[in-house]
Design a protein that fits this description.
Cofactor: Ni(2+)
CATH architecture: 4-Layer Sandwich
Protein name: Bis(5'-nucleosyl)-tetraphosphatase PrpE [asymmetrical]
CATH class: Alpha Beta
CATH topology: Purple Acid Phosphatase, chain A, domain 2
Strand content: 15-25%
Keywords: GTP-binding, Hydrolase, Nickel, Nucleotide-binding
CATH superfamily: Metallo-dependent phosphatases
Helix content: 25-40%
Number of helices: 6
Number of strands: 14
Order of helices and strands: EHEEEHEHHHEEHEEEEEEE
Largest sheet: 5 strands, mixed
Strand order of the largest sheet: 5-4-1-13-14
Structural class: alpha/beta
Number of domains: 1
Function: Asymmetrically hydrolyzes Ap4p to yield AMP and ATP.
GO molecular function: bis(5'-nucleosyl)-tetraphosphatase (asymmetrical) activity; GTP binding; nickel cation binding; phosphatase activity
Length: 247
């Protein structure tokens, strides 16, 4: 098995296509295929904030659900969009408003199609993905070693939001503990969620959310090679959105 795990896309569809090209994939009937039978896997947060969230939904649905040529796990933004599509009263902010604006600009029949595709993609996907063939676990915001193989509310909250304390920084961002500093397991934990300037490797964990939607880059982590490939963002630079660590 050869896997390319792709970081938070957040509606950056053009950069996603560029990344697939850089990784050696070519499009066949709209689906990226690799000559060495590599498979892409998405670490969640496909939508929100970026310019083309609905195109990303169509693309990943075709790849994962219809052609079964890739993998996907949901992020917190995916969870919020799912709840919106299911009729929950969710607040349209922190990026959801951009996806909803795209959605509401569509004709009624196209809205129904987008909604159905995303609900199907979300409901058919695991909360996190164990890939023992490449000694890896893909989880949107990470996962503790003792949580691997388990489900439940605490696991779901951690996987979607990280190791949150319930407190907030002055800029409104949640305070998160550095769980990766205390991970000593064997499988790679491949995650995103928190934008960093360059992929952050700590123990056997790697954060590949390099903030494409904030002007950074879109990054993939290749397994079993344990290498990264990135393409630069075409979005405006927002330096305050990136987190730094004292590693």
């Amino acid at each position: 098995m050869r896997i390319d795990v792709i970081g938070d896309v957040h509606g950056c569809y053009e950069e996603l296509l560029q990344l697939f090209e850089r990784l050696g994939y070519t499009l066949h009937d709209g689906v990226p295929i690799h000559p060495e039978d590599r498979k892409p896997a998405f670490v969640g947060d496909l939508t929100d904030r970026g310019p083309n969230s609905l195109q990303v939904i169509h693309f990943v649905h075709e790849l994962v659900v219809i052609k079964q040529q890739g993998y996907y796990v949901p992020g917190n933004h995916c969870n919020k969009l799912y709840r919106f599509f299911k009729g929950s009263n969710v607040q349209q902010k922190h990026g959801l408003e951009t996806t909803v604006a795209e959605y509401e600009a569509l004709p009624t029949d196209e809205r129904a199609m987008v909604k159905a595709k995303f609900i199907q993609l979300y409901e058919q996907s695991p909360l996190y993905l164990e890939l023992p063939a490449v000694q890896a676990v893909i989880a949107h915001a990470g996962i503790r070693e003792e949580m691997i193989g388990k489900q439940g509310k605490k696991v779901k909250t951690f996987v979607l939001y990280g190791d949150i304390t319930g407190e907030f920084h002055e800029n409104g961002m949640p305070v998160r503990r550095d769980w990766a500093a205390h991970y000593y397991g064997e499988p790679w934990i491949v995650y995103g969620h928190t934008p960093v300037r360059t992929p952050r490797i700590k123990n056997r964990t790697i954060n590949i959310d390099t903030g494409c939607v904030f002007g950074g880059a879109l990054t993939a982590f290749r397994l079993p090679e344990e290498t990264t490939v990135s393409v630069p963002s075409e979005q405006p630079e927002l330096p305050e959105k990136f987190r730094s660590y004292d590693d």
